[in-house]
Design goal:
Length: about 350
């Protein structure tokens, strides 16, 4: 069996050790005689899996008391609606930073319920950078400030946490959660789809401050109200049990590797290798501004875009797959989340150098 290096933006590569453990436990989890997929979500075995996953995530992110951790369905996109439904009253003012496709989707949902101000936008430069704190035109009366900490499609990342004053800060951290330590106490709510840095698709993780729970507007569907989810420890209905189990294995692995400081050091190393290779060549170019470059998603273009197809073909033949860039940026995109080993990035850099020699 040959595993490739998978540079997909999501669903993305998972740690091979986690996949092996899942295989190991597939038919008989810890002597229960059944798979996690077949277990009651109210039974002792699964409840222990859920509790351990939550405890490990809390430890990884040093989540302070006063925050709930929820494992929900509907991916990150369901949060685009749940955030305005739960955190703002009808037509209340809310602030959004527009840094690309996912921000725009979040804004479009919020506009159904709230008065949205775009407090900064990098649309004029095709989202090749994120705004600085000074550029944010914040509204003191906003119900919250929403931003996207890593822009998966455009390859930009906030390397600072915006200061929203007393306004609750809401973050879509889908594509860089667990890639570096963060100070959770700065946030009102953090959410992330699981399929980039956590586990199987279809689940979102929500970390929400207690005082923001229980204020959903009356017409909010029960499934989209944080309160019943929090009161029932993410088991208001049947939760995504298998996704929670796999996520729990990923959390354990990150803790065993030294936690998020160690993960961050690895991500700095991997992304520097790739950006250095791009910057040192005339053959490749990176469209993003230096100070905004993402450690997770690295877009780059070839000097001659007519070679794109050949690049992708030869890369795939070398076991380096899913490198095609998003259509709104063009060229290539290498997504190098936590589970991409440094050997994968080294193999990509080697391939890029040899391709450039061949065609430069
Ligand atoms: C992938 C992604 C989403 C969408 O996630 P779904 O789980 O498909 O809803 C939202 N925001 C960001 C930043 C993403 O990278």
């Amino acid at each position: 069996m040959a595993r490739v290096f998978n540079f997909s933006a999501g669903p993305a590569a998972l740690p091979v050790e986690v996949l092996e453990q899942v295989r190991e436990e597939m038919l008989d989890w810890h002597g229960e005689g059944m798979s996690v997929m077949e277990m009651s979500h109210r039974g002792k075995a699964f409840v222990s899996i859920l509790e351990q996953a939550e405890a490990d995530l809390r430890e990884l992110l040093a989540v302070p008391s006063g925050y709930k951790v929820l494992f929900l369905q509907g991916g990150a996109s369901a949060q685009f609606s749940m955030v305005p439904l739960n955190l703002a009253s009808d037509n209340q003012a809310v602030d959004y930073v527009n840094t690309g496709s996912w921000s725009k989707k979040a804004i479009a949902e919020a506009k159904r319920y709230c008065q949205v101000s775009e407090v900064a936008s990098s649309a004029a430069v095709n989202f090749s950078r994120v705004p600085t704190q000074q550029e944010l035109q914040l509204n003191k009366d906003a119900a919250y400030l929403h931003y996207t900490s890593n822009n998966t499609i455009f390859g930009t990342e906030f390397h600072y946490v915006p200061d929203a004053g007393t306004v609750p800060l809401v973050c879509d951290a889908s594509s860089n959660i667990l890639s570096r330590p963060i100070d959770v106490s700065r946030f009102g709510l953090i959410y992330a789809g699981a399929q980039k840095n956590i586990g199987p698709a279809g689940m979102a993780i929500v970390i929400v401050r207690d005082d923001l729970i229980g204020k959903a507007r009356p017409q909010t569907p029960t499934m989209m109200d944080y309160l019943p989810q929090a009161e029932n420890d993410s088991c208001y209905n049947t939760p995504p049990t298998f996704a929670i189990y796999v996520a729990g294995l990923v959390f354990k692995k990150l803790l065993a590797e030294g936690g998020l400081e160690a993960v961050e050091a690895m991500n700095i190393q991997k992304s520097s290798m790739l950006y250095t290779a791009i910057d040192n060549s005339d053959f490749y170019q990176c469209p993003t501004e230096l100070a905004s470059r993402s450690r997770m998603n690295v877009p780059f273009t070839l000097a001659n875009s007519e070679l794109d197809g050949e690049f992708l073909k030869q890369a795939a033949a070398a076991g380096l797959v899913t490198l095609k860039g998003h259509r709104s940026v063009g060229g290539m995109r290498a997504s190098i989340y936590n589970a991409m080993p440094v050997e994968g990035v080294a193999a990509l850099v080697d391939f890029m150098e040899s391709f450039a020699r061949q065609h430069g």
